[in-house]
Amino acid sequence: MNMHSKVKAQPETIVTPTPKDHKITPRDRRFGREAGHQPGRWWLGDDPVATSFYNALSLTFPRGEAFFVESVKAFRDMTPEKLQQEIRAFVQQEVIHSREHVALNRRVEQSGYDTSRIEQRITESLEMTRGRPQIANLAATMILEHFTAIMAQQFIANPQHFDNADPETAELWRWHALEEIEHKGVAYDTWLYATRGWSRWQRWKVKSLMMLIITRNFWTNRYRDTLDLLAQDGFSGPKVKLKLLSFLLFRPGVARKIIVPWIRFFLPGFHPWNEDDRHLIDLAESAYAAAIRDPAPAENR
């Protein structure tokens, strides 16, 4: 053996609370493809406000998740093997999510909504990331992945969010939510590895500032996009805005209920897996399995 031959250096590891036995499993599922499936224009409890909010959120996913994938993949090859495997599984999950939301968004358009203005705003927002340092895009991805994970917790833990919803569409959201929880630490661990040479103060300063900016933009855009869809149904004015705020802040109040986990992001030593919520993954999986075994509506049981 040539003692002078080069040995491939292994990337150093990082300290992370991500469970060592945790597995990320892409689930190739399809929703709403059956012939005759008609979820209705207001598929969430015949409520135009709730339906418009989720439709507006869904419209962000195909382009947004493509951005997440590219941002994380840019750092994949420099990370340790275990994290590389997690990134590959993360990418597979996000690609499938995008496909299913493309199908959902198509059904939104088929219901008669013009989504072009919303899609243009999303495109323009993502165009602003071109030419930015890759680490900045990774930071944005890590933050938005935290947003999706803490909202996903709500979607699974609190059945009120999808009360009286079209079953197929509600199941799509729960499936998406369980996988967001499952891979919630991937972008953050990639960020920790990519910034391992930074001081803790520098890392905290950058991520905290970006979180404040992204939070403002996220809720401003979702609020505006929801009102855009509502206006197409003839709902506009102060009363409609109050109803939307009530939906977000009171009942079911997803924006209010994620405030505490949002604040935790700013604490020293934060990591998404400081809270092990894998029981929610199991809960969503068991509910899905039960729905497959017993698809009959309640009134026929």
From TrEMBL:
Superkingdom as given in the UniProt entry: Bacteria
Signal sequence extent: none
Region feature Disordered, mapped onto this chain: 16-35
Compositional bias (Basic and acidic residues): 19-35
Database matches in Pfam families: Metal_hydrol
PANTHER family assigned to the protein according to its UniProt record, in alphabetical order: METAL-DEPENDENT HYDROLASE (PTHR39456)
Protein name as catalogued: Metal-dependent hydrolase
